[in-house]
Amino acid sequence: MNPFKKVSSKNVDAKVVQKPQIVEIQPAVQNTSTQELTRGQRLADKFAAQVGSWGFLIGQSTVLAGWVGINLMPGVPHWDESPFMMLNLVFSFASAYTAPIVLMSQNRQSDTDRKNSEIDHQVNLRAGQNIELLHEKLDDLHTQQLNELTQIVKEQQRVLHELKVSLVNESKEVKEIKEFKVSVLPGIYVQNGAQLPKQVIVNKAFNFDQPIGDNNKVIDKLIRR
């Protein structure tokens, strides 16, 4: 299945990534992360915070030293003789209840961290998708601009070619006009891509009093030369 869907955005086709699971899961995760804690969870968090502090360690050390010192002090009634069986029993009970409470707090904190990591992952995934879409839009815009510039360059080249062709045609026409000249006044000479003869009559003009036939004969003689 293709996760991309084509949508038209003005002149650019943007690919929108369809992730319905992310859209559905994200609100649920946010709601569970912001829900209120129960009384037992709050008590477990407070107890775990106290157990893992220097105050609890110092207090426990003080109780242990006092217990042992009083039971070893002479002249004082001893309720727990060496090897301090009652002290071992107290510490065993304390450890039996402290460990589960601390583990409950750690498990809840682990769940919270896992949910937070899921939210961060989804946010990063959505940000990555947006960045990918942005890159695709920029690539499409860049391609479109290159195509427009290419069309402009081709149009300019076409116009320049037309101007060049027109100039070449005009130069050919001018050259043909220069190569082909006909002049009949005051004399007559003909040039058609060839050199003029050395002896050309240029001072003899037409006499309009003469008959037309005589003038035609003169023209024929000049052309034959």
Short description:
By secondary structure, the protein is mainly alpha-helical.
Describe this entry's structure for a reader.
- Mean pLDDT is 74; it is low at 1-34 and 182-210.
- The longest helix has 95 residues, at 85-179.
- 68% of the residues lie in helices and 9% in strands.
- The chain folds into two domains: 4-159, no CATH class; 184-224, no CATH class.
- The chain is mainly alpha-helical.
- The protein is rod-shaped and about 175 Å long.
- The two termini are 94 Å apart.
- The strands form two sheets. Strands 1-2 form a two-stranded antiparallel sheet.
Fold blueprint:
Blueprint: E1 4-9, E2 12-17, H1 20-33, H2 39-51, H3 54-72, H4 85-179, E3 180-183, E4 189-192, H5 212-224
Keywords:
single chain; 225 residues; mainly alpha; 2 domains; two-stranded antiparallel ribbon; two-stranded antiparallel sheet; 4 strands; rod-shaped; disordered N terminus
Order the strands across the largest sheet as they lie in space. Answer: 1-2
Task: Extract low-pLDDT stretches.
Answer: 1-34, 182-210
Percentage of β-strand residues: 5-15%
Number of strands: 4
Overall structural class, as computed from helix and strand content, comes to mainly alpha
